[in-house]
């Protein structure tokens, strides 16, 4: 979930506020005249209350975007450091893929078991911020001060305007050339059985390897579906999964509810330490993610997690 908060900014009364003050003053005057005629005893008290209200109203400050996500979005859109991080991740993964092809007992999926040695090889990739670059969408909501919403996200998906994460195309083409099928597991709500589905068309527009669409693109059924375990299990029955790619911890393993806090996530990371950079490849994404829920969305919650 993305989170963009607003805060008060500036100390100048807007023109709109001035006109509102004038209208409020007229209303107060009419009300006081009525009180003077009907209930003289209440006039002085009412005058004081309304005067205080007018004073507070006159200093109301207009809100402006806090631009909370500004640095994160700019880093992904402009820094060579981000490009280098993504490219080196995918280049190292090419070497790991070749090692996996030589070892029939090699698998990256915790869900893979039984006799899988003779299954055709595949790599499993998340889409958003792993293969597809949606930073333009994040830039829009950051600049406008809006918060993430399903309608805004659906509008973006329907535009089919995402780009490619650096290094992603080179890797999937390398995998395809070596007889390894790229499989995409996404939490986008999409329908891989339909040629006119926006996500299917987005992948084709970018010329990503996508031959058997229904087998290679596994979508979420609703926006609340985030656990990819069942879909990894489906792929593990058809393919030997050599490598996993993602920008979220949940792209690699199931996160139990009681392990979704910072301590639990750290424990999961340490437990599977040997897989990172060998069979699991994490792409950088500071813009949003499941880590936000572990930290907390309010400014106070975030400040409390700073290590000073």
Uncertain stretches of 5 or more adjacent residues: 1-19, 54-60
Under CATH, the topology of the largest domain can be stated as Rossmann fold
CATH class of the largest domain: Alpha Beta
Let me know the average pLDDT: 85
Beta-strand residue fraction: 5-15%
The coarse overall form would be globular
Number of helices: 13
Helix % is: 40-55%
Largest sheet: 5 strands, parallel
What's the N-to-C terminus distance? 26 Å
Count of distinct structural domains: 2
Secondary structure: elements and pairs:
Elements: E1 6-8, H1 15-38, H2 43-58, E2 63-65, H3 70-78, H4 80-102, E3 121-125, E4 132-133, H5 135-144, H6 150-159, E5 163-164, H7 168-177, E6 181-189, H8 198-205, H9 213-216, E7 217-220, H10 229-238, E8 240-246, H11 262-271, E9 280-282, H12 291-295, H13 299-304
Parallel strand pairs: 3-6, 3-8, 6-7, 8-9
Antiparallel strand pairs: 1-2, 4-5
Helix pairs in contact: 1-2, 3-4, 3-5, 4-7
């Amino acid at each position: 979930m993305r989170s963009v908060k607003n805060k008060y900014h500036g100390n100048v009364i807007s023109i709109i506020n001035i006109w509102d003050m004038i209208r409020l003053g007229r209303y107060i005057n009419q009300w006081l005249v009525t009180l003077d005629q009907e209930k003289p005893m209440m006039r002085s008290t009412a005058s004081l209350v309304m005067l205080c209200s007018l004073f507070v109203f006159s200093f109301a400050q207009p809100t402006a975007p806090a631009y909370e996500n500004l640095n994160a979005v700019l880093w992904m859109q402009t820094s060579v450091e981000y490009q280098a991080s993504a490219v080196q991740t995918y280049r190292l993964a090419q070497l790991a893929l070749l090692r996996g092809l030589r070892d029939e007992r090699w698998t990256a999926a915790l869900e893979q078991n039984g006799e899988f040695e003779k299954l055709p090889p595949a790599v499993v990739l998340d889409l958003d911020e792993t293969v597809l670059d949606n930073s333009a969408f994040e830039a829009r909501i950051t600049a406008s001060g809006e918060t993430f919403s399903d309608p805004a996200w659906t509008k973006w998906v329907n535009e089919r305007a995402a780009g490619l994460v650096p290094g992603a195309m080179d890797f999937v083409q390398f995998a395809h050339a070596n007889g390894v099928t790229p499989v995409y597991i996404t939490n986008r709500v999409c329908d891989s059985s339909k040629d006119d589905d926006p996500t299917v068309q987005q992948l084709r527009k970018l010329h990503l390897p996508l031959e058997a669409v229904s087998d290679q693109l596994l979508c979420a059924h609703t926006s609340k579906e985030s656990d990819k375990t069942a879909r990894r299990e489906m792929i593990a029955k058809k393919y030997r999964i050599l490598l996993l790619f993602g920008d979220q911890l949940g792209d690699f393993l199931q996160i139990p509810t009681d392990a979704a806090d910072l301590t639990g996530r750290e424990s999961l990371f340490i437990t599977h330490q040997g897989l990172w950079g060998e069979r699991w490849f994490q792409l950088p994404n500071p813009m949003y993610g499941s880590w936000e829920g572990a930290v907390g969305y309010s400014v106070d919650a975030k400040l409390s997690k700073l290590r000073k």
